[in-house]
Design brief:
Number of strands: 4
Structural class: alpha+beta
Largest sheet: 4 strands, antiparallel
Strand order of the largest sheet: 1-2-3-4
Helix content: 55-70%
Distance between the termini: 91 Å
Number of helices: 11
Length: about 270
C-alpha cells in the first residue's frame, strides 16, 4: 500500500512539472523572439522604441512609439537585418562572386600562346559544329518514315512466321496469339512444355533473363536440336540466326518421339 501511494505521488508530481513546463514554454519562446531597437531608420521614416514581436520570411511586425506596423525584410538596414537573424544579400553576393572574380583575374594573367591558340580552336569548332550537325542528320521526310515503317512491319511479320514454324515443328499448335506482340510468348511456352505462369517471369526485370534462357533451352530441346543451337539462341548477336535455323530446318520434334516410345512401351506391357 505504501509503495503504491509513493508511486502515485511521484507520477502526480511528474505530471504537474510537465504541465508547468508546457505552460511557461511559449512565454519564454516569445520573450526570446522579441528584440528591441532604440531607433530604426526605414527610408525617410524613423521609428523610436522599436520592439520586434513577430518575424517571418518576408515581413517583421514591430511595436514603436507611435503604434504598430509591418515592415518588409528587404527594407531593413543591413545591421538590423543581421541582428534579427536574416542573411545580408550584399555580403552573400560578394562572397558568391569572390571565386568568379578570382578565376577571371587568374585567367587574365595567363599570357601563354598555346592557351590562346587552344581557345581560338575551341571558338572555331563551336561556330562550325551546328553546320556539321545539320549536314550529318538525315531529313525525316514522309517517304523515309513510310519506308522505315514498312521495313519494320515486314521484319515483325517474318519474326512471327518463324515463331509459328517453331511451334508447329515442335508439335504444338501456335494459334492466333503468335501474331500478337508479347502474347506470342504463350504459344512458345506451350511448344516448350512450360507452364503459362512463366509468362509473369518475362515481365519482371532480372527474372526475365532467367526465363529467356530456360525458354531457349526448352525450345531447342523440343525441336530435337543440340545444346549449341540453344547457346546461339540465347546470345543477342546470334539469336536471329538461331531462330531462323530452328524455324526452317528439318528434324522431328522430341515430343513426338517420346509419345511413340510411350505407346510402344504400353503395347509391350499389354
Amino acid at each position: 500500500m505504501k509503495t503504491a501511494k509513493l508511486l502515485d505521488r511521484a507520477l502526480s508530481g511528474l505530471f504537474r512539472l510537465a504541465l508547468v513546463v508546457l505552460l511557461f514554454r511559449p512565454c519564454g519562446a516569445n520573450a526570446a523572439i522579441e528584440q528591441t531597437f532604440d531607433a530604426l531608420q526605414i527610408g525617410a521614416t524613423t521609428y523610436r522604441n522599436v520592439t520586434v514581436t513577430t518575424k517571418s520570411k518576408d515581413y517583421v511586425f514591430i511595436l514603436h512609439s507611435r503604434g504598430m506596423t509591418n515592415l518588409k525584410v528587404g527594407d531593413l538596414p543591413g545591421d538590423a537585418r543581421t541582428k534579427l537573424g536574416y542573411p545580408d544579400p550584399a555580403a552573400a553576393q560578394v562572397k558568391t562572386n569572390a571565386p568568379a572574380a578570382w578565376a577571371r583575374e587568374t585567367l587574365s594573367r595567363i599570357e601563354s600562346p598555346q592557351v590562346k591558340q587552344l581557345g581560338q580552336h575551341l571558338m572555331n569548332w563551336a561556330q562550325g559544329a551546328p553546320a556539321i550537325t545539320r549536314m550529318s542528320l538525315p531529313v525525316l521526310s514522309p517517304k523515309v518514315i513510310f519506308i522505315a515503317s514498312v521495313a519494320f512491319l515486314a521484319l515483325y511479320l517474318f519474326h512471327c512466321y518463324c515463331c509459328l514454324l517453331i511451334c508447329a515443328k515442335a508439335g504444338s499448335k501456335p494459334g492466333a496469339l503468335v501474331w500478337l506482340p508479347l502474347l506470342q510468348l504463350f504459344p512458345l511456352l506451350r511448344a516448350a512444355s512450360m507452364p503459362r505462369w512463366w509468362f509473369l517471369g518475362f515481365l519482371v526485370p532480372g527474372l526475365n533473363l532467367i526465363a529467356q534462357v530456360v525458354l531457349c533451352i526448352k525450345l531447342t530441346r523440343a525441336r530435337g536440336k543440340t545444346f549449341w543451337v540453344a547457346l546461339f539462341l540465347i546470345f543477342p548477336l546470334t539469336s536471329p540466326f538461331a531462330a531462323i535455323y530452328l524455324a526452317f530446318s528439318g528434324g522431328r520434334p522430341r515430343r513426338r518421339d517420346d509419345r511413340r516410345r510411350l505407346e510402344i512401351m504400353t503395347l509391350e506391357t499389354a
